[in-house]
Amino acid sequence: MKRFLPPAGHIIFWREIVSYFFPIKNLNKLNLGSATHLANSGTAALYRLFLSLKNNQEKNEVIIPSYTCPTVAAAIIKAGLKPVLCDISLEDFSLLENDVKAKSNSKTLAIVQVELFGILPDNSKLKEFSKNNNIYFVGDAAQSFGNYLVNSELLNYQKYDFLVFSTGRGKPINLLHGGGLIIVNKNALNVISEENKIPDVSIIEKIKIFINIFLYKFFFNPKLYNIPKSLPFLKLGETIFTLDITLERFNVQLDKMINAVVRRYPDIFENRLKHKKQYAKLLSKFSEYLLPIKIGDKNELIRFPVLFRKSEDRDIVLQKLNEIGIGATGLYPHPLNTQQGMEIYNFDQCRNATQIARQILTLPIHEYVKPRDYEMISGVFDLFLKRK
Ligand SMILES: Cc1ncc(COP(=O)(O)O)c(C=O)c1O
Q1: How many domains does the chain have?
Q2: Contact 112, 87 (CB under 8 A)
Q3: What is the 8-class DSSP label of residue 25?
């Protein structure tokens, strides 16, 4: 079987998988010192947040990045609110302050900053703006949550009112289920509606989650990853927009597993830092073909983003890396305004978001990425960029 590196994730140990059958009622060892509500997914946590915010105010518009996971928009629409797309920076993929200002008005209820790949943007100006205009400031840490786990000070530093995270597939903590909502702003503690109406995950769903984790344990291995990758019904890596969102409680069978992964998270974090540094070094040789990205020294990434100056270069490198078994991706293929299923909303086009969708490439960061993979990646960049 041809070796193929999965695009993102981390290894789950057998002892962690076995713990699924020995749950403890000892949830939430995240130790972030703030009120945390867990849910069945990051999308569900976002949905719960927006339902609660809507209950409290007349405002109905939520500003989000134009280039992000479509579930962010879906959660807003499902809650009966209106997403407003805003352009993002080519340097760190965060919301452009000027565009946020241009698109906000008296109906703006919240601004959602997405920390794409794990990059932590400077939020000071947006925080000030949202505070002055009585707008909730929400952080989507689905991809950056690992940074908060190793440094809980970031909760204060990043200045959100609410922080949403995911423990789904390919996320910093990769349990193929779950997510949550942290209330950072103590004044907003009462904003989130009661939890007692939220149903538990059904037995059938619990069995499905176990099977998923079990299969993941095998197929995350590069020697076997080609098998699930070649099964189209699994839709691995596809970006889908759907309003089919269920809000349930976090699956308690995963209590021990989440605690165990949190305990060993410093190792996962260190490993990701190491890969990040290696990629930065490797890619510095190709700077004339790439746009500079501002990545902090101390934060982990779950995938390494590469932004090409030309989409043709991105396309050829992406194709060749996949041919040699490196799980590079083009992340989301479209900005939200042209994402399939979202055209009906007639969202504005945003220039940088459109450019990023065409020119971005991500490189895998996890335990299976080895020195020879760097060499192969470097070889592809050399061959297909420099030969022109
Ligand atoms: C930025 C972002 N927000 C939210 C989500 C939704 O998380 P989940 O898959 O747990 O529903 C994702 C998932 O990919 C994401 O990337």
Answers
A1: 2
A2: no
A3: S
In this structure, the number of other CB atoms found within 10 A of the CB of residue 148 comes to 25
- Which of these three, 197, 222, 252, is where a domain ends? 197
Tell me, using a 6 A CB cutoff, whether residue 144 lines ligand 1.
no
Say yes or no: 133 and 46 in one domain.
Answer: yes
In a domain, 9, yes or no: no
**What is the strand order of the sheet 82-86 is part of?**
35-39, 179-183, 162-166, 136-140, 108-114, 61-65, 82-86
Beta carbon of 168 within 6 Å of any ligand 1 atom: yes
Distance from the CA of 143 to the center of ligand 1, in angstroms? 8
Q: Which of 197, 229, 252 is the last residue of a domain?
A: 197
Same domain, 190 and 329: no
Q: Is residue 252 part of a domain?
A: no
- 202 DSSP assignment: P
Q: Helix, strand or coil for residue 189?
A: coil
Q: Is pLDDT at 348 greater than 90 in this prediction?
A: no
Domain that holds residue 108: 14-197
| Rounded Cα distance, 126 and 360, in Å | 25
CB 365 within 8 A of CB 302: yes
Local confidence band at 26 (pLDDT 50, 70, 90 cut-offs): low
Instruction: Give yes or no for residue 113 CB within 6 A of ligand 1.
Output: no
DSSP one-letter code for 82: E
Give me the amino acid identity at 186. K
**Dist. CA 199–CA 205, nearest whole Å:** 12
Q: Coil, helix or strand for 388?
A: coil
74 CA from centroid of ligand 1 (Å): 11
Averaged pLDDT score across all residues of the chain: 93
- Which residues make Cβ contacts (< 8 Å) with residue 298, sequence separation at least 6? 151, 273
Give dist(CA 228, CA 269) in Å, integer: 26
Report the share of the chain in percent with pLDDT over 90. 81
Q: Do the beta carbons of residue 223 and residue 368 sit within 8 Å? A: no
Q: How far, in Å, is the centroid of ligand 1 from the Cα of 41?
A: 8
Sign of CA dihedral 218, 223, 227, 228: positive
Q: What letter does residue 301 receive in the DSSP assignment? A: -
Check residues 316 and 228 and name the one with the higher pLDDT: 316
Q: What angle do CA 264, 266, 267 make, to 5 degrees?
A: 70
371-386 and 265-283 are packed helices; what angle lies between their axes, rounded to 10 degrees?
Answer: 30
